[in-house]
Specification:
The complex is a heterodimer of chains A (379) and B (400).
Chain A lengths: L16 H17 L2 H7 L8 H9 L18 H13 L6 H14 L2 H12 L4 E4 L15 E5 L2 E5 L1 E6 L6 E8 L2 E8 L8 E4 L8 E5 L4 E3 L9 H37 L1 E2 L2 E2 L4 H27 L5 H27 L1 H4 L6 H13 L4 H12 L1
Parallel strand pairs in A: 1-5, 2-5
Antiparallel strand pairs in A: 2-3, 3-9, 4-8, 5-6, 7-8, 10-11
Chain B lengths: L3 H18 L18 H16 L18 H14 L7 H14 L2 H13 L4 E4 L15 E5 L2 E12 L6 E7 L11 E7 L5 E6 L8 E12 L3 E2 L5 H12 L19 H8 L1 E2 L2 E2 L4 H23 L12 H23 L19 H14 L4 H12 L6
Classes of the chains: A alpha+beta (379), B alpha+beta (400).
Chain lengths: 379, 400
């Protein structure tokens, strides 16, 4: 059979020794620290995650993996973060890990020298952070900004409201996107500057996670909080790609577990005297879900391998996000259906997967969004 | 002992050889797959081409020297196979021999069988076909009813096989036939034969495909006598050997002689089509819905290439080790079918034309490709059977 070589891109995939090791470590850790009864017990918890588990992740060095050694990190790449997030996704684990990793990437790409010197070691050391990027218009375009910053002497006065600031209550640092002097800008705001009343918990579809609205009106920060304005667009683009890669990892992991969970039911539940997994309408659909998952995972590890490469990295990441979102959505949708009456209950885990898949697509673009971006890159 | 330097030189030689020797611009249409050899002209051309490639040392380079192979490491053949793919050379004709019978013989054949058959498979002097499917038993292979009755030193074969690729040209057939109708299970009544095709009582009738072309036959056995030496394995082991053969076909086992036996249309060609086609006064490629579908297809195409590479990265296959190998046939054949079908929809009124009409886009390659694509989603186990296999052997679901 002849192999196929894609449009100007070689189908590249590889795995570093570190990635291979991290797969095993993350698999064991997430299985151990986030069994389903733990996930269930955290659904009602105010912060939604276990700070003790977070501390262990920090001690393992995970928050510093993609931060250079000069700034207190381990000096590996985003490719090494992917297996960690994938296995957190498999366990539907909740923590500020993705947010903190993204904040570090934002500072690394677009922070001032001083911000890099002070913030990166803190982030590497496990000080949780978040990003305030979304607005009421709900556009995925991160440059579509109605929140603003006005200069007032050596201070900035902010206005507007940010939405879907994930794990904001736990965060010690929030990176806010807004318009400054008519162009996109990013501001690194320490939590100490934000009164608790500015954060309002939002009712989100995914009960395993937490998100807040952040009221910026009248909030004052020193001008030194402004990140490098000349790099703002580039940094927003880097945030979108990094977030897409990590969300693809989470969703790919979720798709795997969701399929596994459904298979358990298909292998044990009997109707009309037969195991329901022997019926081809269910079996074949389960295979289709599995095939879509495998496709998504091939794209995920290709994206993890290529993410740092100009052009190719963007294409690979967008394909990975589109495929992972669709694979997770389909697997979880069928998971509810295949569990029948039980699938319609809150007790069935299928709904947790389905809701987390919707959340993962809602953040940083669904399949259609990424395919449109890809079309512009490819044709 | 050969080393990396020898491989490098071999690779370069192969590249040069295929660049110089690949035939261009034949005045008749070359078959894109081994299932489309419909005329004598095509057959003889492809037999000569395979023979030439073999004589040059670029086919079966990793098969044992004593039987006619090159005796080199597999990496050498892989390099030659890649060189063929790059030049998009004509296909290797003797597909059943090169990809299924040959590896099967090397894995479990007797010394005598290897000496007798391997060289002819590689040189294309002896063409092989496969006699598994029957008119009434397509997907239900285990129910095959063609009889093989022992009579002294012979077996007497009676019955009919269908979808015999190159049946009218073949010298030998790998044949699955029932030696014991009373066996405790339908599977245990089957035996496996390396049967001669040229003999009394064997008749092949070409089947006209849905495209209007030829490439397969129905094969009739009417008290055909074959020597008992033709039996491979013991009586009753036929199903086991047939299943092993299908594993080569489905890519779950390796050992194939190399080269390509199918030329898949390049998914990139559809981009050219979308640029050329008009929709509402503009190139179709400017239409948002079409762009999205094109990206979708390109993403899938890329996943096929990624999967074969990922399959070699053990940490990324450990959850379900057989998944990518067993899933490949389903995902690739289904993909190419949808790719061709979508390409037809891009052509506006030109979608109505077919091969041979000057108004047809690219001489109707997409129309023909679409119709032919069903040979891959039906043959070698239909997509529905593939889903059973994946469901049961990869996902562990109960049998249907």
């Amino acid at each position: 059979m002849s192999a196929y070589v894609g449009p100007g891109i070689t189908p590249t995939i590889g795995l570093s020794e570190e990635q291979a090791q991290l797969i095993d470590i993350a698999a064991a850790f997430c299985r151990d620290k986030s069994p389903m009864d733990k996930v269930r017990s955290l659904l009602e918890d105010e912060t939604g995650f276990d700070p003790a588990v977070w501390s262990e992740m920090v001690e393992l060095g995970w928050t510093g993996i993609a931060i250079p050694e000069d700034f207190g990190g381990i000096g590996l790449g985003l490719g090494e973060v992917v297996p960690l997030v994938e296995y957190m996704g498999r366990a539907m684990m909740s923590s500020p890990f993705i947010d903190t990793t993204l904040a570090a990437q934002a500072v690394l790409r677009g922070g001032t020298d001083e911000q890099k010197q002070t913030l990166l070691p803190q982030l590497a050391g496990g000080s949780p952070a978040s990003l305030a990027l979304c607005e009421a218009h709900a556009d995925w375009n991160l440059e579509n900004l109605s929140c603003t910053a006005q200069a007032d002497g050596d201070r900035l006065v902010l206005s507007g409201t940010k939405h879907l600031v994930t794990h904001a209550v736990a965060a010690e640092l929030i990176i806010v996107s807004l318009a400054f002097e008519g162009a996109p800008a990013l501001v690194a705001v320490p939590k100490s500057a934000i009164e608790a009343s500015r954060l309002t918990r939002e009712k989100i579809i995914d009960d395993t996670q937490r998100a807040y609205a952040l009221n910026l009106d009248g909030l004052q920060v020193p001008k030194s909080a402004l990140m490098d304005v000349a790099l703002a667009r580039e940094t927003l683009a880097h945030i979108e790609l990094t977030a897409s890669l990590l969300l693809a990892a989470d969703m790919c992991g979720g798709a795997f577990s969701c399929i596994d969970y459904t298979l358990d039911y298909l292998k044990t539940r009997k109707q009309f005297g037969k195991l329901i997994g022997s019926y081809q309408s269910l079996k074949h659909t389960a295979v289709d879900a599995h095939q879509a998952y495998e496709r998504a995972r091939s794209h995920l590890y290709s994206a993890a391998f290529l993410v740092d490469q100009q052009g190719e990295g963007e294409m690979a990441v967008r394909m990975a996000k589109a495929e992972a979102g669709e694979a997770y959505s389909f697997a979880a949708d069928r998971a509810i259906q295949f569990h029948g009456g039980f699938g319609f209950t809150y007790d069935c885990d299928a709904q947790l997967y389905r809701r987390r898949a919707i959340m993962g697509c809602a953040l940083h673009g669904d399949a259609r969004y990424h395919r449109r971006k890809l079309a512009d890159l490819m044709f | 002992m050969l080393d990396a330097k020898d491989l490098e030189a071999f690779t370069q030689d192969a590249k040069n050889w295929f660049k110089e020797n690949t035939p261009r611009d034949t005045d008749f249409m070359l078959p894109l797959t081994f299932m489309e050899v419909g005329t004598d002209e095509q057959f003889h051309f492809l037999r000569d081409w395979q023979n030439k490639v073999y004589e040059a040392g670029y086919l079966g380079a990793h098969w044992p020297k004593e039987f006619g192979g090159g005796g080199l490491d597999k990496t050498f053949q892989d390099a030659a196979t890649r060189a063929m793919a790059v030049e998009r050379t004509p296909i290797m004709l003797n597909a059943i021999g090169l990809n299924w019978t040959g590896p099967l013989l090397l894995d479990r054949g007797s010394e005598a069988e290897k000496h007798k058959y391997i060289r002819g498979i590689l040189s294309a002097e002896e063409i092989w076909c496969q006699g598994f499917s029957e008119p009434d038993h397509g997907s239900d292979l285990g129910n095959a009813q063609t009889r093989a009755v022992r009579d002294g030193d012979d077996y007497v074969i009676t019955g009919s096989k269908i979808w015999t690729t190159q049946g009218n040209y073949a010298d030998h057939m790998i044949l699955l036939a029932r030696t014991n109708p009373e066996a405790e299970s339908k599977y245990k009544g089957l035996s496996f034969f390396l049967a001669p095709m040229k003999g009394e009582g064997i008749q092949t009738v070409p089947i006209r495909k849905l495209t209007g072309e030829y490439g397969f036959t129905q094969t009739f056995f009417d008290d055909a006598r074959i020597s008992a030496d033709c039996r491979m394995g013991e009586e009753g082991e036929g199903w086991l050997i047939a299943m092993q053969t299908l594993e080569y076909e489905r890519g779950a086992r390796s050992g194939q002689a190399g080269g390509h036996v199918m030329m898949l249309s390049d998914p990139n060609d559809i981009i050219g089509l979308a640029k050329a086609a008009q929709l509402n006064g503009k190139p179709a490629i400017e239409d948002e819905a079409i762009r999205e579908e094109l990206v979708h297809l390109m993403t899938e195409a890329r996943a096929l290439g990624l999967a074969s590479r990922r399959d070699k990265l053990q940490p990324l296959t450990q959850d379900r080790p057989m998944s990518l190998a067993l899933g490949g046939k389903l995902s690739s054949t289904d993909f190419y079918q949808r790719l061709n079908a979508f390409a037809i929809t891009l052509q506006g009124t030109r979608a109505a034309y077919y091969v041979g009409d000057e108004s047809a886009h690219d001489n109707g390659i997409w129309q023909r490709g679409y119709l032919n694509s069903f040979s891959a989603t039906i043959g070698g186990g239909t997509s529905q059977i593939q889903r059973n296999i994946i469901g049961e052997h990869v996902l562990g679901l109960p049998k249907s």
